[in-house]
Amino acid sequence: MVPDPPFWLPSSLADMWRDLKSLELNREFIAFLEDSGYPPMAKHVRDWLLFMIIKSREGDGDVKTMLPDHLLVVWNAGKIHTGYYYEALPRALGISRFIPHSRWAEERLPDEEKMARREAALTAFKSTYGRDYVPYILRDRVPFTWINVKTLSGERVLVHALPEATVAEVKFAVFEVNRVPVHKMRLVHAGRQLQDHRLLSDYAARVGQLHA
């Protein structure tokens, strides 16, 4: 069952949501990535597809935009069915052009060029979807902490985050669970309100209890 479009998706893009979700639900592809140690890959695949919509709509033949670094796992997994996405995504968008990509060429770029192309992708994401991109945090092979967030209503939400995650990213993770609007959310630890731009490690690398 394909879910309804999220509330933040512009109405002009809502029609393609069913096609997008159908692509995301390629169980064989996601299962392979998860078995390779990259949980939760369904969310990474969704984010990857959102960026590929941008590349496809803009006809990014010169590869002027690069995906955020943590989404490269979707490209780099050796057995993914890239041909499926190359063909299905343009068809879902109603266009005929091929989506070019060479991860090997990108790997040879200077770091400054990579950064510029990723910034261009983030700018295009905000222009297309009307919001900043908030990444899901990779958990594989990296120590992470579980955070128990207690809301004013008494509900407890368990989220996971890296010490270098920002407070804003933790808020978005809480929103994904209980749909409390991020702009109305305040995170408090030990009587102190946490600032969106700060890292969890700025307060404590192993924050275990927060209040929202």
TrEMBL record:
UniProt superkingdom: Eukaryota
Domain Ubiquitin-like: 147-203
Protein name: Ubiquitin-like domain-containing protein
Protein species of origin: Vitrella brassicaformis (strain CCMP3155)
